Amino acid sequence: MSISSEHPVTAEQIRAALAALAAEPATDAETGPEGAQGEDRLHLLGRLLAMTELLITTATRLTEDGEIEDVLETLHGWGEQVGADPGLAVNVLTNRLQRTALQVSEPQAEELPPGREAAFAAVMTAVYTLGAQLHAERDDTEGTRRALSGAEEALIDTLQGIHDLRVAIGDAVGQEEDGTGGRPGRSGP
């Protein structure tokens, strides 16, 4: 697969793919009778991606053995399509992680519950860590440092969110009194 072209797929082609999956969006007054135009490509691609993810989720067995086999089969198909370009693969993974982080963060929410906050930070830890590795491979020491700082901050936020969720369910109550700071195997701060 090559992504060298700025717009390798047109809005009409994406709409046709959605129609083939019985997921074509309704034409509205804003798009006119011609349907979606070039500026709607990313929105349509998002719909196509969602439909693909829903189809994969529906096809994945929910048994311990079957689920991992299905996920691996999907991964093999993904690898065949992306090809042997490790830079492209990391770019796709980073893009996916960023979308996941935004979905986890519930952009419309004013404040996230601690579990979602921790999950968001965990995903961002992965984004920053992948970025740090890419900078390191390019001998970009300053870029690596910035990405590692982001990863460390996100990791701290992950741990804080996990702790806050434990407090919320009552697991952390009284741990501070035992002198271990709530950490098993430690005898002091």
Report on this model:
The protein is mainly α and 189 residues long. Helices cover 64% and strands 0% of the residues. The protein contains six helices and no strands. Helix 1 runs parallel beside helix 2, helix 4 packs antiparallel against helix 5 (114-137) and helix 5 (114-137) runs antiparallel to helix 6. It is globular and about 55 Å long. The model is unreliable at 181-189 (pLDDT under 50).
Q: How does the helix and strand content classify structurally?
A: mainly alpha
The total strand number stands at 0
User: What's the SSE pattern?
Assistant: HHHHHH
Q: Which bin fits the share of residues in helices?
A: 55-70%
Total helices: the number is 6
Shape: globular
Cα(first) to Cα(last) distance is 53 Å
Strand content: under 5%
Give the averaged pLDDT, no decimals: 83
Largest sheet: none
Please give the oligomerization state of what you see.
single chain
Task: Please compute the radius of gyration using only Cα atoms.
Answer: 22 Å
Uncertain ranges:
181-189
